[in-house]
Amino acid sequence: MNQEQLQVSIRAQLRAFDDQAFDRLTRALPLADVVEALGAHPPEAVSRLLQAMRPKLAADVLALLPAEQQDELLQRLPQPAVVAVFERLPSDLRADLYKRLSQNEQSRLLPALGRMVRDDILKLASYGEDTVGSVTSSDYAAISPQLTAAEAMAALRAGDRQQIEVIYIVGHEHQLLGTLPLRELVLAPLETSVAELMQHNPAYAEAGWARHRAADLIRHYELLALPVLDEAQRMIGIVTIDDAMDIEREDDTGRLASFGGAAPLDKGNLDVVHSSVRRMFSVRVFWLLILTVFGAITSTFVAQQEELLSNVVILAAFIAPIVDMGGNAGSQSATLVIRSMALGQLKLNWRDVAFVIRRELPVAAALGVAVALLDMVLSHFSKGVGADILLVVGLSMMLCTLAGGVIGAMLPFLAKRLGTDPATLSSPLITSIMDMLGVFIYFGLAYAFLGHLLA
User: What family, per the record (predicted)?
Assistant: First the structure.
């Protein structure tokens, strides 16, 4: 069934209010495809269908919808339906949804939930937005090291945990003692104790850490999930590999926005579809004001070169391509360095700084020579300028490209040293710096080689 047929089928079920047909559809097709098609329909129709579904299916559907649709549907659902769905949602998503409710909605919802669910929500919702605790799921399997393999299997069968690929071994105060892959437990002799099978000293994260550290550990150790401990070193949950992928995807999106000069100065998300006009303005105006200052300095300096430009008018034609080339070269090198930092290939130390300089200098110099020669040839045939002006243009192009490449490569290290995200030294900022430096280089060389024309 293609997406068009799926849309027709769902539309018919929404009109007929047929939750049983929808249930059969979710069993026959991937739920993600069904939910994607469902998201295109009016929220009031989807809300009616959610109320008629089995609570577990309604929770699965809600979990796959975008955040703004989740919030709108929760506003439309009656209180009993919200409670039924909340108690069946994944624990980390449940905490996220709870934090997005108003205080009045939270106070109405909590008393209606079961005690264990209520305590779990309050615990996970207490952690800051960018901490490991905010992406922690309490859906994990934990057993005692004193059990045998047979007893451990029986305990897992009796539970309702979904994440059982890795079993966590905990002490009587829930301190983490080790881990045990499900495969090893299944293959072990039934009388073998869990203490003999478990792997000691597992990697872990603390709930108060920055969440990207959990994603880094999962990637580094190639884990399916990472245990999370509270400040008392008690295990409170796990961060799964899916969570880690979401973290890295969001961080990459933030870096792209930052590199474009449109990243929030706070930690909130910004997107053109859902962010308010006021927020879009407040985030973007900061960068534009900073870049305006650089532009004012550059234009003031150029205006002061009136005498030279009036005597050699052709010089004005080369300002834009020369300074643009420096910005382009800087953006290229900064992008490469930021990518290597994100992959863990470069660290903030003098050895890596020296390595990048050694690599970038010859590359930037070669690029400068290449673009300078091409620009000189094109300028000679298109504008018919003399050798002295060609020399100024060629040297300026080469030096701007060289300077842009080196400065662009160094700025991410400077950002790291200042404790900020390297991507915040964005492409527009690098370009503005090179605009200013470029005109200094260009007119400095022009005075050096063409100063006699002013006499």
Answer: Belongs to the SLC41A transporter family.
